Amino acid sequence: MAIEIKNINKSFKSKKTDKLSVLEDINLTIDDGELVCLLGPSGCGKTTLLRLIAGLDQPTSGEIIANGEVVKKPSGDRAVIFQQYSLFPWLTVLQNVTFGLEMTKQGSKEENIAAAERYLTSVGLIDFKDSYPHELSGGMKQRVAIIRSLLNHSPILLMDEPFSALDMQNRHKLQEQLIGVWKRFENTIVFVTHDVDEAVYLADKIVIMDRNPGKIAKIVDVDIERPRKRDSKEFIALQESIVEKLDMGE
What we know:
- The strands form two sheets. This protein has a six-stranded mixed beta sheet, sandwiched between helices. A four-stranded antiparallel beta sheet has the order 2-1-4-5, with helices on one face.
- The chain is an alpha/beta fold.
- The protein has seven helices and ten strands.
- Strand 7, helix 5 (about 170-185) and strand 8 (about 190-195) form a beta-alpha-beta unit.
C-alpha cells in the first residue's frame, strides 16, 4: 500500500475553547497507483488531512505511513499542489514547466521540451510558451503551474482543489490530462475536491467526509470504466447517489 492512515486525530487551540477538534478517528488505506478523492463541504478537514499526509503538519495522535515510512516531514516522494500556485517570474512559461524535470534529470532536454509543449498545446497555452508570468492572466498562470506539477511525476501526488478556479472547459481538459499522467506513470493520487462531478470523473475511490469534527462518513468505490462519460446513465446515477449522501450527512 502507498499510504496508511491510522487512528488520526487533529485538534487546534482556539480563542473560544481550549481544543478545537478538526479531524477525529481517521482510518484509511490507499493502495499503490490508486486515485482517491476526498470529498466534502468546507470545514470538514480535507485540506488538513492532505497536509498531514504531506508532512506539512503533524497529527495530535495517530500516524500516517507513506511508502513504508512514518510521515514526519515533507518528502520529494510526495508532491503537493495547492489552490494557489507560484511561478518563477524570471522564467518563461516553457522554462517554468520544464524546471522540475531539468532539476531531477528525468529525461533529455529535447524530450522534456517536447512533453511540455504537448501539454501546453492541450490547454491552449502553446502560443504563450515564451511569455513571462506577469504577461499572463490568473487562469493562465494556474494552468501553467498545474502542467508543471503534472510533469514532475512524484510517486505520490497530493492535490488540493487545483482546478477549482478554472473555467469548466479548462478544468475538464486538465482532469483528462491528470488521468493521462496517472495512467502512464501510475502515481498514487490523493485529490481534495468539493465538486461531486469531479470526484466521480477522476476517482477509483471517493472518501466522503463530514464535519464538526471532520470524519469519514462513507467510502464509495467507483467502478465506472474509463474513459468516463459524464452523460452516461451510470455516471449520473452515482453522482446523484453521492449528492444525496452529502445532503443527508450519511
